[in-house]
Amino acid sequence: MNEEKKSSSFLTTTLLVLFIITVFISLLAWITYGTIEGIIGMLSYIVVGLLNVIPWLIPFVGIPLGILDVLDIFGIGMYDFTLNFAHLNSSWMSITWFWIVSIMGSLVNIFIMYLIISWIAGLKYRKKEPKKDLALINCNIIDGNKDSRLIEDGVILVKNIVEKGKEAGLIVGVANASELNIPDGYQKVDLNGCYVLPGLINAHCHLTGSGKPTKLMKLSDKNMMRLVKFLATPIGKIILMKLMKKNALNALNAGVTTLRSMSDPLYIDLKLRDQINKGKIIGPRLLCAGKGICITGGHGWAMAYVADSITEIRKAVRQNLRMRVDHIKILSTGGVMDARKVGEAGRPQMTIEEIETACFEAHRGGLLIATHCESTEGIREALRGGVDSIEHAAEIPDELVPLIKHNPKSLRGYTVIVPTVSAGMGMAVLPKDETKITQESFENAIIIEKGMISALQKAYKENLRISCGTDASVPYSFHYELWKELMYYLKYTDMKEKEAIYIATKGNAENLGIDDVTGSIEVGKFADLIVVPGNPLERIEYLGEVSKVIIKGHLIKNPKVKKTKKIKKIEPLII
Fold first, then answer.
1. Which of these, 510, 488, 500, 458, lies nearest to 575 by C-alpha position?
2. Is 116 helix (H, G, I), strand (E, B) or coil?
3. For residues 472 and 212, what is the distance between their CA atoms, to the nearest angstrom?
4. Residue 397: CB atoms within 10 Å
5. What average pLDDT score do residues 322-346 get?
């Protein structure tokens, strides 16, 4: 019944708009020509004029062809033809309409060309079954385990040619060259003494943004809603998918083979995930939250599922379950990006009962639930509600440590801390004339950044479970710089490189529940691997110099990362 009413309302509105436009044009035609024939001729001129858009739509040649029409070169001008067809004389109105149609055609032509160029550029990521089994030789192997030892002169065997119904891209051998024979038929890939380790895992990112600073933080609520409405249009969804795909592939080329998206609009992240899983494109492993869930006016309100009661929270989680999300994301406190006054970032927004309801529904659906949480009080309430991970975090008092380690309401009996130190670093340390943010956002960023660093230090000191995430997409947190989060871990704690690598690989896989398929270099797991030129156990920065990437057995020989240019470096200024 509701669908029928919506359809009827849309049809009525459309007909009303067409009627108003027809009346308006008829009045202008009467003023211009002063005859009934002129009105009829003008209306027919416009109908036929719309057909003039067709030549402009031909990719790459449409605009020149349209210009030939406009200039009446070679006697094929559509303007004169349309006038003659409608039995009209030239007038300001006919000329204006013809140029409107021409400009519209040009814009559509440009958009079509953009889609074609994007499609051609993406051909190299069009998935093809690997043609050969791989043997990675002459390499040093860091397997990602907490107690791992470096395997020098190592060999990794990757089985890509398999029988129908079996998984391709699995590791079938890992050892020193003297201990492992390479079977016939394996293509040898000589890594010339480089270091191989598991692909990095980003446990907190958003695919919508790249990390390049934008003016979105300054948009009014009204303009933000206009942007959201545009993104919900067919063209907006196409643009959004292109952006998400570009960011995911950029991360992959930088060595991030698994991404956990933590709330993106319109469930587009799920569509991208499904394209990758179905083999339509080569891409990173995606774990998607779909729409985040927040309160009215709360953090992330513009692109999240807004819910203001226990009933609405329950409905929102169930809707996300129906959409086949991989985990649930709620936003239980305020955040920096849309706070309007100092102190609003981190302010508790959801009630304990609402958090508890979201956790109950998520856990009953077998999914982990994470919360955006940037204050001590917010952490306390989220833990009481039963969340499985605290995203961003803040100062953690001693009395909360036992509940984090043993949380009876969480799905697995414990809660994970995801500090995302990278998230506020740029906004907190760069001058405002560089970041272009407001004084309120600047002060909030400093408060939240210090809280995240404090949470990292406490979590490490108390041996809490830590996941490595960057909140990539927020200003100055790029999808290709996950390694910098590990650099911050080393700076602010006594953590060693091996521990940091474990957290970003197998540790993350364990916390996300995917350690049975990825996260370490072990027989039976997928070949999600990266190759770097030097030893990251001695210098973590080597993780930012990825020379090869393998995702599910697919070798990317020369990964190319598209970096944002003209961005001031943060490192010399870090807190």
1. 488
2. helix
3. 10
4. 10
5. 93
CB 171 within 8 A of CB 521: yes
Measured on CA atoms in the order 11, 236, 285, 500, is the torsion positive or negative? negative
> What pTM was computed for the model?
0.81
Q: How far apart are CA 544 and CA 548, in angstroms?
A: 12
**137 bridge partner residues:** 190
Residue 173 and residue 156 in contact, taking contact as beta carbons nearer than 8 Å? yes
Q: Which of 362, 271, 358, 345 is nearest to 310 (CA)?
A: 358
Residue with tokens 């890509």: 160
In contact, 338 and 349? CB cutoff 8 Å: no
Give CA–CA dist 338/98, Å, rounded. Answer: 44
> What's the whole-number mean pLDDT along residues 8-21?
77
Owner of token pair 């003209």: 566
Alpha helix stretches (DSSP H) within 339-400: 352-364, 376-385
Q: Each residue of 133-176: pLDDT tens digit?
A: 999 999 999 999 998 889 999 999 999 998 888 889 999 999 99
**Strand bridging mode 369-373 / 256-261:** unpaired
Query: How much is the pLDDT for 71?
Result: 56
- Per-residue pLDDT of 116-143, as tens digits, reads 777 776 666 655 555 699 999 999 999 9
